[in-house]
Amino acid sequence: MTTITGRVWLFGDDLNTDVIHPPQFFSLDEEKVKSGLFHGLDPGIQPSLRPGDVLVGGHNFGCGSSRETSVRALKLNGIGAIIAIDFARIFFRNCTNNGIPCLTPSRAQDLDVLRAGHVVEVDPGRARMTTETGEEIPLDPPGQFVQRIWQAGGLLSLLPDPRPERGV
Q: Is residue 73 a contact partner of residue 37, using CB atoms and an 8 Å limit?
């Protein structure tokens, strides 16, 4: 799997999907969806994001609604990975289905060394995160099927093309 390099954005426990992406930004317009990311928490976050950035949270990351709009907004903003102590199950599945790696630290206290804005490298295949100061944080290794989905960029990329071949 590809190593992800990005800046750290720190969040706490119980980060709700309606905080990640508020309902007033639900739309088919990708720019509107993209601009709504974290708007209710701090409207200055989304314009400051760069592709590959890594979100780090505590317990119950992605709790709340099972709507995929929060994950769509994360994907449109190029979030490289999410590291949290644990995830709401449906949020984890929605991220996986959309090719966003969600990983947990082997030891929760290891996340205490991270600082907002520091650059980290996340290697989902090796289940490691390395800080800009060279500290390695072991992550719980994901299963092979989950890794395959992430590597493909999402679940739909693994499905066969349902269209019949022309001329048959």
A: yes
Q: Is 151 exposed, middle or buried (0-12, 13-18, 19+ CB in 10 A)?
A: middle
What pLDDT sits at residue 168?
Answer: 52
For the CA atoms of 1, 72, 42, 106, the dihedral, rounded to the nearest 10 degrees, stands at: -30
Sign of CA pseudo-dihedral 69, 70, 71, 76: positive
Q: Tokens in use for 77?
A: 């903003």
C-alpha 95: how far from chain center: 6
**pLDDT for the residue 77:** 98
What is the spatial distance between Cα 88 and Cα 133, in angstroms, rounded to a whole number?
A: 30
Cβ neighbours of 56 (radius 10 Å): 20
The whole-number average pLDDT for the span 87-102 is: 96
Amino acid 149: pLDDT: 92
For residues 142 and 139, give the distance between their C-alpha atoms in angstroms, rounded to a whole number: 9
For residues 6 and 101, the answer to whether their CB atoms sit within 8 Å is no
Average pLDDT, the chain: 94
Q: Is the pTM of this model over 0.90?
A: yes
Q: Which overall architecture, per CATH, does domain 4-158 show?
A: Alpha-Beta Barrel (3.20)
